[in-house]
């Protein structure tokens, strides 16, 4: 085991050694072990037949009381006086006594026993003390502990337990270690227990005792702790509980809390839980007395207290920094106990892969890997291509989800456990917190972007080749190339979605800037309206997240939440969200004559308004109206529902409807193949009901047999976040046309022709009000967006004004991607399990493009990611490249699968029956027609609302092409 030293406010470096060489490396090990513990919990639940998850250990309680007291000794030694440990200090305590097994069984079965004590010092400070009825652990460290738990998972019969101890355990840890662990367990369980009140309980792991350093503690029966234990009737499966009930009806139960002080690493090790701290070496010192007062445990009041205690989660890390746990097993206990408790309380989930899927996974994946060297997935027959995609996604989930959040390492003490706000169980928070109730900050505003590929930070290549040259030679639109299978609503939609998903914070005026030199002969550039002509392009730098050590500055926080929560409509914080609602806490969103209200600058007052233009305005207007329609329907259906509940339910409904539209309508429109149409509908609805699909998924990926909304949340081994690579593949600015023809939908007459700059920023709102929402949707519905390819970047975005800057957005795209450490195109391909290109001709055969690529880049390894993605020849029907699609297929399901409001809490109890029906029957067409019913005859019959609409011919109506 590698070793390192870290200092804490109380010096522990001389006692603790971190596995893997650092707290951060050890944390990764513990996260894996926590997931394994959750699997043990599932196995125990299945074996026991219990309707709910039990604790991983100490499942069966014999006693739970809330009225105990812990009083420190009047003569507490001076060296041990610190924090809450003061002479005569007296605190209320909650006590739980239990068997140690992870499954409930008869009290007479061989087992250890345990005590858990929560000492409540103040409302802001508590200390959990946990001990077991044997002085040492069977496990030296957390790895051994989890290996033993896995070996014994689900074992109920003597034969199953013997198989676990003598076969599974040696295979996991080796014969010598297994023998030592087995001897410890057998010695511990050989002891006959007649009363839990007369047992001694040892912490078995060390804790810090402030300046006194490490100690182990134990609870031993006090001399005045009552009579000796009688000989119980061992045929009674609950005799220990009965004995405690009878004992407490007559007497108090008392334990002395004793501590053993650290001597040296050899005789009193901190890291090795399997070594006893012997009394002869470090005699126990009495520091306090725990008293459970005489009481009647058969009353309703006592029963209620016991039920409350069973809902508690004890964790030795519920303490202060001065008394924090020490050692490998203890450090692992924080994350492992939190994971186990979260699963027990149904706020964290484990989905086990069936054995048949695991067995067939390796050979079938190998077959597809070999096959794809000859035939890519999109050229296979339909059924084979669908299974190929299933296995491609499994590979990507296993290898391309990288957690970038700075972990809590070493673990920190928590003075009190934090309870979940009950309102957040049924409502999305304003800022994305508590979507995962077990990890409140996961995916919230400010959470870091993850990675699908290991970042490559190359400051020496930030300006190589010059990004202005790249833009002008390879990206600039020379003539508009349309995407004829789509309409401009598809372009507006994806920007509407991206604004919900991702936003990097930029430094404000006077903050850090990026300077890009113009190439020789490249002219000059004005970086602000009316500013001087310069030989550099200058724009605001992104604000990064501070990283420890010498790590490169390539971690960035998302100023939007990572969840699919409609934050572009509702806002990403409580103040914004409330500002957008009708006065006096009304449920509806504010609208001005059916349009988004505007501020003094003419910019709308909405959740996210950067880069505003008429297409975004149409989407925001449409879904603000949709929210209000849902509110009205809920109010009519459920008249007793409060306005606040109506608002939050409507937000759930609208956000889920947006997610569904993107999944089953927008995506199949831009990836127009039969395989993707089936695949995306499978994500939401489940697979087609034919025997071949059903059999194939049952054998190979049974979790896909239902739509994702019918499954449990699954983060696939990495905390949920959107990624920098995801941001890169969603750079789809070529979809935006430079020119727009606005027409009225009754007679098809042209109203006016405008450029993008005429309908962006403050001009967008006056234009949409003049044109009307129905005419705007019609005009965009009959027009094509640009194709996502080289030489098709909108010129209007190459001279784009925002927040006092004039920027070339194509240059910004290139620079941002480089500076954020996203690998260049060839490494990007390879990281997504595609063959590297060896020459420029492998990317394109178009002569002019090929010549420019060779002129701009010295080697294929220099090609910018965005350029390579645009240059690829996509699969037939695809609107973007197969390489980009690989990030897409990974993240498209992840956005649904990780979100509890789109999985386990996508149910009538949360959404209401009306809300569920609204989502299930709704789609983009129904949204448009609810608010613009006059467009019904113009929308595609057999395609989504993002396919080209039917244009009305002015000649057919006896009119000219111009209105008036």
UniProtKB/TrEMBL annotation:
Key words, A-Z: Dioxygenase, Fatty acid biosynthesis, Fatty acid metabolism, Heme, Iron, Lipid biosynthesis, Lipid metabolism, Metal-binding, Oxidoreductase, Oxylipin biosynthesis, Peroxidase, Plant defense
Cofactor(s) demanded: Ca(2+)
GO MF entries: catalase activity
Enzyme class name: oxidoreductase
EC numbers for this chain: 1.11.1.6
Domain Catalase core: 54-152
Alphabetical list of InterPro entries matching this protein: A_dioxygenase (IPR034815), Catalase_core (IPR011614), Catalase_sf (IPR020835), Haem_peroxidase_animal (IPR019791), Haem_peroxidase_sf (IPR010255), Haem_peroxidase_sf_animal (IPR037120), Oxylipin_biosynth_metab (IPR050783)
Keyword Ribosomal protein: no
Keyword presence, ATP-binding: no
Any Pfam family the entry gives: An_peroxidase
Official protein name in the record: Catalase
Taxonomic classification: Bacteria, Bacillati, Actinomycetota, Actinomycetes, Kitasatosporales
